[in-house]
Amino acid sequence: MIIDCHGHYTTAPGELHVFRDAQLAALRDPHGGVVEAPRISDDQIRDSLEKAQIKLQRERGSDLTIFSPRASAMSHHLGNEAASLQWARVCNDLIYRACQLYPDNFVGVCQLPQSPGVAPGRSAAELERCVRELGFIGCNLNPDPSGGYWTDPPLSDPYWYPIYEKMVELDVPAMIHVSHACNPAFHTTGSHYLNGDTTAFMQFLTSDVFTRFPKLKIIIPHGGGAVPYHWGRFRGLAQALKLPLLKDHLLNNIHFDTCVYHLPGQELLAKVIPVDNILFASEMIGAVPGIDPETGHNFDDTKRYIDQLPLSAADKTRIFEGNAKRVFSRLARHLEKRNSKQAMEKPQ
Amino acid sequence: MIIDCHGHYTTAPGELHVFRDAQLAALRDPHGGVVEAPRISDDQIRDSLEKAQIKLQRERGSDLTIFSPRASAMSHHLGNEAASLQWARVCNDLIYRACQLYPDNFVGVCQLPQSPGVAPGRSAAELERCVRELGFIGCNLNPDPSGGYWTDPPLSDPYWYPIYEKMVELDVPAMIHVSHACNPAFHTTGSHYLNGDTTAFMQFLTSDVFTRFPKLKIIIPHGGGAVPYHWGRFRGLAQALKLPLLKDHLLNNIHFDTCVYHLPGQELLAKVIPVDNILFASEMIGAVPGIDPETGHNFDDTKRYIDQLPLSAADKTRIFEGNAKRVFSRLARHLEKRNSKQAMEKPQ
Predict the structure, then answer these.
(1) Tens of pLDDT along A274-288?
(2) I need a surface site. Which of A154, B37, B169, B318 has the fewest CB within 10 A?
């Protein structure tokens, strides 16, 4: 089984964006009321997925995508806490419907209703709703709700502990994922995403978060930003700070995905990061959907790179399936439940 | 000849820091006057270098270090424009003295007197002084004088053109190098430096700076931050933006140094970036001076990694020497002048 741990609903029907625009416009209007959630039909959802993510799953040979709302559209810097909550609920409910329509293809991960300067613990209720009521198996946690000004405390700060507590209680991991950069210094997918990954790793490195929360599970996407390429630097910095070896200090809790869009990068990742800490992902359909003229294949068809790595079949199975099932511990239960339901529904 | 294009005077005598503290204290004091430049003797300079950078040059087998003031201490976010100017002049004058005392070991690159919100063109005079009067061959340009809040316009903005014009006029390159991070989200050497590199690259990628300034020469340090590891991502983003191939769009102007502190990272760098765009560097004595327990050698002894790369001797010579002489075009003239002076001084 091939599990893609990082997919966003980037092809959601236009009504979703019309709603978001109207919601933000109403906030700016002193007479603006509450904007109703968008009406989107099952057929619209089917149409948006079948010609896109589901088509690519089939073509590229992946089975299940761990699916969350579009990361760049979370835009936690816009509006306020109440607007972020409504927006998160609308997006998460849409993911739920996609997962209900295609239980073989998708399982949900939620967007949190974060807002700059608002305690992350206030996102715990939406996380709990998504996990307990909608069957989601994880969340995306934005380390910089300001969108590129980095005005909230680092992930090492007690500010974040309440959301970690809820994650541990629910036994769900977080993918650390920034959103749209409103700071003109940053290009959202070209620098802000990668910087967010590197920054989060270093915030954890210089913290005791995993001593306090030994069961906390974190995924750093986009191949870990700059981290594996500079693994020697990070090992050396940890040593200078008299910290334990990174494998003991961080790798019981932190994992990296494989959203690295060329073979040499994937080779490096698999060379320096233990196989148990690597989860297959493509982030399709995401920032880099084009065809690489050097290979003739899509940049983000990451399965092709991993197929070429000098790893044993057992190691590849861990990257493609085993590690995702371990890190997303609710996934195994979800699959069992789904399979037995499908078996019961099958005509005898 | 082995030229290390990235070394900072991190071992400068304590008087320098006493001066800086006094300078900043005077600024905060309504009755504070002008603090005099520190008095540092030639012997103090000799002592601070001979047991440190010069000892390591000898041990590791490098000949000449392109030497600049400590990057993290530039701290452009502190004080104001006048304080930054005095601080830059003091630091640059000290580099000049080190280069005069050890002309075989060092050649100077200057710190610019930047300040948040102050037009970079106002640094042109200090750059000109350092190049024309002190014989320096380049500068360090800070893309984020705010120290981690990224409040100045991106490097693509006309805001920066006047300093580019001066660089082209003087025929000197800039190393894009952030300084100390005062934003608690960032660890200076662990995330801010690498983020600065990635951010600058993407700012240039989405700009027409090199069409406007075809002779502008840029070095992105720390192996280019996250860029080579994500080379496929950047190629794909450029393609999606309908830009030329990166080799044509950026690699006539942008170069990367080799401050990557483990062999797999160096292998990746040499695999994806053309040899002509790689300049040898170690940043010693810098952020990661310790001994790697996996190799028994210093993390930042980067020559060892390059010695192990599967490149031809000619390619290695380009990385160690040829590219630095081409990018720092004033270096060749400097070496000629120095050598003929030394020949004349030699007893007949």
Answers:
(1) 999 999 999 999 989
(2) B169
Q: Which residues contact A70 (CB under 8 A, 6 or more apart)?
A: A8, A9, A10, A12, A91
Q: Using CA atoms, how far apart are residues B69 and B73, in angstroms rounded to an integer?
A: 8
Whether the per-residue pLDDT at A347 is higher than 80: the answer is: no
- Cβ-count burial of B141 within 10 angstroms (0-12 exposed, 13-18 middle, 19+ buried)? buried
**Mean pLDDT score of chain A:** 97
Q: Verify whether the Cβ–Cβ distance A185 to B152 is below 8 Å.
A: yes
Cβ neighbours of B194 in A, within 8 Å = 198, 225-226, 230
Q: What is the mean pLDDT of residues A7-28?
A: 97
pLDDT in tens, B215-249: 999 999 999 999 999 999 999 999 999 999 999 99
A176 neighbourhood in chain B, CB within 8 Å:
none
Query: Residues 14 to 53 of A: which have CB under 8 A from any B CB?
Result: none
Query: Which one-letter amino acid corresponds to residue B116?
Result: P
DSSP-derived 3-state class of residue B122: helix
Nearest to B150 by CA among B181, B173, B119: B181
Cβ–Cβ gap A190/B184 under 8 Å = no
Report the distance separating Cα B291 and Cα B297, nearest Å.
5
Cβ–Cβ below 8 Å for B268 and A229: yes
Residues A215-243 as b/e (b if ≥16 CB within 10 A, e otherwise) read ebbbbbbbbbbbbbbbbbbbbbbbbeeeb
Q: How far apart are CA B44 and CA B15, in angstroms?
A: 10
**Looking at residues B264-290, what average pLDDT do you find?**
97
| Residues A65/A279, Cβ–Cβ less than 8 Å | no
